[in-house]
Write a sequence for this structure.
């Protein structure tokens, strides 16, 4: 048996090694011939899997692992990336109880870190970044409706001039480019009107959200139009939209979907396109019921043909709501 074979055959399950190390001092491991970094790492892992924790059930399940020590080290590298102890234990438990190759486990570890990591909300305030030779940067972080309003007051044609005017000129900025619309569903309106507005979150077409109570305080009309959405029928036609009432139809469309209707897309309605659910080229009409907010990109990839075999799916109106139909859900 050469040294390589001896090493591979001698590799005992990592958990057995940790169990034997638990309770020992670093000096004892050094005397046994361990390097100082190895000794520290083994004792650290032993403390995790055998020491006190609030998550004893997950710890006990993870101890049944037959993985090699190198695999437990890999798992710990990913567990350490999670800020919550509970998430770290969910990751350890799942990976320790899976009987897969180290490479497969590492792939799953990467997925788990993505799933379990909670993005820390950025702290609110105004930050200045000073650079020796490059331009400086002022960053404003705050409630979405405030920042959306500040941003709307800036003239996109000459943003720096208009910011300077707002800060020092004493006057208000230029008027927002598009009127922001506030969306309330009929059943939510009941709550706002009856004073239970804190239970309701309304979304504005500039992409920001505020509670119904805040909205009532700010007075509905300050925010522009109010459009009613029926929970089953979709937009309620308040404006008797005729063939040519396209601006109002657009308002109703963005009221229904304040952001791109494609799942996961945050593109705000104010700069999105009016998408025909039944394609214009296939006889679809320009009516609120046939319109959906869609960013230019998703309008481009939306499949006009409901039977297309190779596609990214399409938007449809089902039971009053605009939903994304995946390509594999063809009738
Ligand atoms: Zn989109």
């Amino acid at each position: 048996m050469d040294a390589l074979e001896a090493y591979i055959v001698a590799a005992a399950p990592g958990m057995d090694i940790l169990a034997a190390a638990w309770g020992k001092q670093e000096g004892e491991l050094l005397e046994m011939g361990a390097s100082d970094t190895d000794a520290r790492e083994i004792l650290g892992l032993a403390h995790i899997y055998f020491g006190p924790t609030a998550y004893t059930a997950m710890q006990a399940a993870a101890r049944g692992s037959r993985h090699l020590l190198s695999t437990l080290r890999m798992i710990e590298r990913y567990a350490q990336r999670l800020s919550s102890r509970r998430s770290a234990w969910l990751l350890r438990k799942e990976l320790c109880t899976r009987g897969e190759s180290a490479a497969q486990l590492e792939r799953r570890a990467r997925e788990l870190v993505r799933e379990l990591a909670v993005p820390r909300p950025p702290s609110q305030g105004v930050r200045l970044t000073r650079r020796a030779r490059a331009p400086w940067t002022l960053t404003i972080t705050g409630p979405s409706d405030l920042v959306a309003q500040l941003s709307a007051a800036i003239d996109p044609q000459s943003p720096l001039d208009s910011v300077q005017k707002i800060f020092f000129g004493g006057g208000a900025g230029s008027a927002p480019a598009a009127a922001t619309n506030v969306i309330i569903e009929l059943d939510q309106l009941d709550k706002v009107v009856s004073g239970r507005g804190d239970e309701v979150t309304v979304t504005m077409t500039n992409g920001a959200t505020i509670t119904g109570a805040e909205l009532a305080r700010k007075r509905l009309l300050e925010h522009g139009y109010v459009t009613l959405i029926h929970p089953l029928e979709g937009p309620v036609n308040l404006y008797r939209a005729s063939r040519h009432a396209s601006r109002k139809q657009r308002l109703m469309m963005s009221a229904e979907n304040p952001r791109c209707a494609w799942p996961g897309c945050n593109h705000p309605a104010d700069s999105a396109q009016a998408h025909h659910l039944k394609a214009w080229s296939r006889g679809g009409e320009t009516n609120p019921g046939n319109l959906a907010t869609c960013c230019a990109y998703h309008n481009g990839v939306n499949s006009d043909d409901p039977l297309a075999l190779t596609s990214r799916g399409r938007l449809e109106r089902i039971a009053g709501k605009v939903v994304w139909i995946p390509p594999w859900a063809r009738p």
Observations:
- Residues 99 and 313 are 36 Å apart (CA to CA).
- The chain has two domains: 11-116, 182-329.
- The pocket of zinc ion is lined by residues 260, 262, 265, 267, 295, 297-298 (CB under 6 Å).
